[in-house]
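Fold this sequence, please.
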Amino acid sequence: MKKIFLTLSGLTFLFSGLVKPELLSNNDPSKYTVIKDILWASPGGFDLTMDIYTPQSGKDFYPVVVIFHGGGWLIRNKSIMDQMSEYLVTNSEYVVCNVNYRLLGDKGNTITLNQIVEDVFGSILWIKENIINYKGDNTKLAVTGDSAGGHLSAMIVNMGTKLSSKGFTTASQGFNPTYLPEGKKAEEVAKENGLQVQAAILSYGSYDIYTASLKGFEKMKNFFWLISGSLPRGIFGNNFNAVDNPEMYKAVSPSFNLPMSSERKLPPQLLTVGSNDKLVTPHSVKTYKEKLESFGHHAEYWEYQGQGHAFLDSNSNGFLGNNFEVNAPPALDVMISFLNKTFYEYN
């Protein structure tokens, strides 16, 4: 029997016999169909695509899991989540959408962080409108992502009602989704709570962009600029910085945008992190969980013992010491349990 170590509130438990290994596979293409590179928007002529995986277990409709990849908003694309998508659709009953968004270095290093947020907002609206064609239930959506993707998922959960046709300005930090249903403006979508999702799994995400920027995120010390081949600059352009324009940086920081549960109830959330993660520390994730709970929201915490950053990435990463087949499945099994509890056991 497969063993899973689960850490909750600093306590580690060993669960044996939860999963039969012969029932699990990293990838079994006979269990699903996949359509790759579906074009869902082209902001400024920049094509954005997603891959959609549909289980073949015979149900009419399935809940939907939407994945946003990590990479510091500067590197990588949806392919880094290919194996995660395959594992989920092989071992659970969810339609999986693996989504591309623009990166800061795209379009000649001119994309801003608010535009990236607008991309992921738009992807959710496109999915809600079109996922029925892939046997997805648009009333049962979960968002997930690791690192930068965890941040973007948290933005959907926390800021999905902060929409404006005027877009993101110094005077009003509203978001105008990259994709909008035909005939609808951003304000109408916000009024209808059109970006509402029913669950979120946030893996080693960054929830405070304001403080990170004060500490040098926009400088060469942030190695993601070097890896991306882009020169460091302000994430909203060189005319803005966190000292002079704190409201802009806080507007893209989930930790500064939590509604009280009496105003708007956020969906159940699972926060995960590796115990050895130096980039996004367990302490920072626990702090965010505590803040969620102080605002009256439900959040669970899972700490992956002995793991560092990016344990969900496809293939192998010698620098980080990760290998998908070794490191990712135990975490994905915990995520599937959370999703099943949210979408199947209580419904």
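The first strand starts at residue 2 and ends at 8. The chain has one domain: 19-160+191-345.
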